């Protein structure tokens, strides 16, 4: 825990541990008096029984396992030549212990996908408190099918205690930290912050501290898009995030009933831009509350980085399901 404190920041770690200890049944955060629907167990049970009684559960469950592979092209003006065509595999909101068979669906969909870097943007556990051993075991199984390097951040469903065992199986966590990514003599930087949704223990200044000033490309992993303003002000070029599930249970046309994030609706799914910051919010590879989805397919995203002017689409990039 001392080592984690040195990485995350000792004050931030203390805050996180205190909130974790108090978290079990909290529906309202003390700091922000924000309502957190994911903490309301009876609501999850209610959704499950409504889907069962109305006969929709089976279809929703099949949708939950029907993971789409989506390509997203990102144009970055300062991208070094060696990174043109660099592919980032993005998984988010796996909630692997919601249904113990789900990891097998993810492994099957990963198949022989080609990528240069894998990132995970938080929420590995289904519940927001309680045991982590099931989550760790299932994530270890998944990690065996991910090509390194693999980098990750924690979400609001995760405890800091999950970090050491997952790092032992090759998933490197970015706890308000950054790493350089090298390719053929060029370098870009990947940073990651702690959960900005519930724990609010993100520290973008600390995450950026080791990134040199000037014309360098930097990518931020954050669990939730809610930190988009800070990310833009901190000078990041691209932010990859999740948390919202795109609504998960949506009206026809993908209209989310619940956005689950304190941010504009245009940020809850897919590519977006805020000032000079480009972002992508994964609708989630997994699901939470109930293993069911409607009008919002689960997703494995392949982000291809392009130098400006070389992408096929517009400057804001292009998102398209490929299978
Ligand atoms: Fe989340």
Characteristics of this structure?
323 residues, alpha/beta, Purple Acid Phosphatase, chain A, domain 2, 7-stranded mixed beta sheet, 6-stranded mixed beta sheet, 9 helices, 15 strands, globular, binds fe (ii) ion
Description:
- With 323 residues, the protein is an alpha/beta fold.
- It has a single domain, classed as Purple Acid Phosphatase, chain A, domain 2.
- Helix content is 25%, strand content 23%.
- The protein is built from nine helices and 15 strands.
- Mean pLDDT is 90; it is low at 30-34 and 310-315.
- Bound molecules: fe (ii) ion.
- Fe (ii) ion binds at residues 123, 155-157, 197, 223, 243.
Count of separate DSSP helical elements? 9
Low-confidence stretches: 30-34, 310-315
Spatial extent as radius of gyration = 18 Å
- Written as H for each helix and E for each strand, in order along the chain, the element string is HHHHEEHEHEHEEEHEHEEEEEEE
Question: Which architecture would the CATH scheme give at its second level?
Answer: 4-Layer Sandwich
Helix content: 10-25%
Largest β-sheet summary = 7 strands, mixed
**Mean pLDDT across residues:** 90
């Amino acid at each position: 825990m001392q080592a984690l404190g040195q990485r995350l920041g000792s004050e931030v770690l203390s805050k996180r541990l205190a909130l974790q200890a108090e978290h079990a049944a909290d529906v309202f955060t003390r700091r922000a008096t924000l309502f957190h629907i994911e903490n309301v167990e009876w609501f999850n049970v209610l959704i499950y029984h409504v889907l069962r009684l109305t006969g929709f559960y089976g279809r929703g469950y099949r949708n939950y396992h029907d993971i789409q592979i989506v390509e997203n092209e990102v144009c970055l003006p300062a991208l070094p030549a060696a990174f043109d065509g660099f592919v980032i595999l993005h998984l988010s909101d796996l909630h692997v212990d919601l249904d113990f068979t789900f990891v097998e669906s993810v492994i099957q969909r990963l198949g022989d996908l080609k990528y240069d870097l894998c990132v995970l943007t938080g929420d590995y556990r289904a519940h927001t408190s309680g045991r982590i051993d099931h989550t760790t075991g299932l994530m270890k199984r998944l990690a065996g099918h991910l090509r390194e390097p693999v980098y990750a951040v924690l979400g609001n469903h995760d405890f800091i205690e999950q970090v050491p065992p997952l790092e032992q199986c090759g998933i490197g966590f970015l706890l308000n930290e950054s790493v350089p990514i090298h390719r053929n003599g060029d370098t870009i930087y990947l940073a990651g912050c702690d959960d900005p949704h519930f724990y609010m223990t993100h520290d973008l200044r600390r995450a950026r501290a080791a990134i040199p000033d000037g014309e360098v490309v930097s990518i931020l992993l954050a669990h939730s898009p809610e930190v988009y303003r800070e990310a833009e002000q901190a000078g990041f070029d691209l932010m990859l995030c999740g948390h919202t599930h795109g609504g998960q249970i949506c009206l026809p046309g993908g209209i989310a009933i619940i956005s689950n994030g304190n941010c504009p609706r245009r940020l809850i799914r897919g590519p977006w831009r805020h000032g000079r910051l480009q972002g992508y919010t994964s609708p989630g590879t997994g699901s939470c509350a109930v293993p069911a989805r409607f009008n919002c397919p689960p997703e494995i995203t392949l982000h291809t980085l392009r130098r400006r002017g070389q992408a096929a689409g517009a400057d804001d990039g292009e998102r398209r399901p490929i299978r």
